[in-house]
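Reader question, answered in our methods column.
A reader sent in the components of a multi-part assembly and asked whether the whole thing could be modeled at once rather than chain by chain. We filled in our standard form and ran it. Here is what they sent:
COMPLEX SIZE: two components
ENTRIES:
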Amino acid sequence: MRRFASFVKKEFIHIFRDRVTMLILFLMPIVMIVLFSYAVTTEVKCIQTAVLDLSGDFATRKIITALENDGYFQITRILHSPNELQTVFNDGKINLAVVFSENFAESLHHGTGASLQLLADGTEANSAAMYVNYAQGVLRGCLFDFNRLDGAAPVINTNVKMLYNPSGKSEYNFVPGVMGLMLLLINAMMTSVSIVREKERGTMEMLLASPLPPFQIILAKLAPYFTVSAAVLAIILLFSRFMLGVPIAGNIFLLLGLCLLYIFVALALGLLISTIVNSQLAAMLVSGMVLMMPTMLLSGLMFPIESMPKILQWLSCIVPARWFIAALKKVMIQGVGFENAITEFAVLGFMAAFYVALSLKKFKIRL
Amino acid sequence: MISAINISKNYGGVRAVDSWSVEVKRGELYGLIGPDGAGKTTFFRLLTTMLLPDGGSATVAGMDIVKDFKKIRRIFGYMPGKFSLYEDLTVEENLRFFAALFETTIEQNIHLVEEIYSQLRRFADRPAGKLSGGMKQKLALCCAMIHSPEVLFLDEPTTGVDVVSRREFWEMLKTLKSKGLTIMVSTPYMDEAQMCDRIALVSGGRFLGVDTPENTVKNFDGKLFSVSADSMKTLTADLKAFPDTITAFSFGDSVHLRIRDNDGSIDHLRQYLSNYKNLVISEIQPAIEDCFMAKI
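And here is the structure of the entire assembly that came back:
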């Protein structure tokens, strides 16, 4: 036991005396979270809008005012002829155009149906869909008001509320995703590099030439990174909660349990990598490239899994981050209990056991 | 204490160690002498249970290197050829770690290496990576000794170390040997062979023979002459072409010539080399290096 303790102590010294390791461990997750949350945001803030009002009555004016007051739209161009539409889109200065047909208010009043056209710049399909959505939201609000003014029963009474993310904030989506990516990459990379470094520097030969059992070498390698990662996790969670305002809706202990389980999976994966490669560079490449690409693409961080081809959906099942992100959204954002995330917990637990068993089997007791 | 019978190890078709048989007695200082690529490191790795042999067998303290590797790993101290301590740990932290690895403490065993460690003590808080070459090797020896091993394997401990530190290092080995330790040491430096009880000459994976340094020199086959003259460039080639020559190789500012022990061959040689000015031919006592060259 004393032997194991001094091995763990040695590992901590390695971590704390190496500035690069410390920087990667503590600074990188925060930089990534900030970058992803603020810069790579999918939220729509300032929709450049053009208006072509062929009617010019009280109803259209009311809708235009409503758009202006909504906060998301910035009406930068007032057009006077349909011919101008093509020009403003070609210039690329406009995201959305709202076109009112003639006699708009009258048609609305008579119930024959007033026509209104929304034109969006489709080169960015996702954003375009969102602009149209926002605009329709404003229109629905106006329609409701018109109905009330007329004293008639409201014809349309749509009330859309986005569940869990009422304001469509992208941080809610990105924080679990980035946590899934960062915790995996950092831990897998750090452990694999630290074991391979011993091989490269020849100190593994000294360790093997001692009576220390292999599982103690492995455990002593995992323990310090597990501890440090727990600290990093605390920083990420506090940062998300208080700087980004992401709510922690669920049970905090369940959340911590989930994250620690995932950290263990990542460490075990790093361990497995270290038993396969022989140089620190190879360890970096494998953990960087081989882990990063699938995690980015197949975990649901960037593209929703449901919309992938079936074969990629199956493939995504072996990506640990997929299960973690899914569980994290449930536990952290939705605030549901353990019974709703039991599959994810089970899969992650199985993965951890599998990787550790495989590394133990592959760990070389000789050179 | 150490016994190897026809042990072999191949690396992708290259015979790194080709059927070596070695017998080392308890308390002996046994030297493996040979150039780079002789197979010394591979042989050490076989005996330290780091590698599995492709043929033959070996025991350390009566324990088989394949079956009993766990037990063997408790009783030997090992200094690999490459500096293999933690460079970011201080001198004392390294020593403490390697003591703990064998479930012992510095305090328990420091008396074994007191003379060596007394030189290191003033650097106790310095990272091992910032020590000089000689100091690194002394620390490595301390770390190999700190669990009080029965056998010490030292793979080229003096390579890359200055002359003074090399001499000190060998003095330390003699001290350790006097305490009853069995030591197997390898070196590419022929002059260090004199310090060993027995030396084995190895080259290119082959085991050339083993004897005491004195007998190795005494059993030199043929006569050895040192030949020098003004134009050294052609001298070696001419000597190699001489009919009675067995070997001729340049050795500093002269050529070491081994010739068959025939009557009058020296007179023939003088005639043969009569073109050379300032020709000096003198019989010399062979050194270990000459024995080595004679055996390859």
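What stands out: Residues 47-150 of chain A form a domain with the abc type-2 transporter like fold fold (CATH 3.40.1710.10). Residues 152-163 of chain A have pLDDT under 50 and may be disordered.
Send us your own complexes using the same form.
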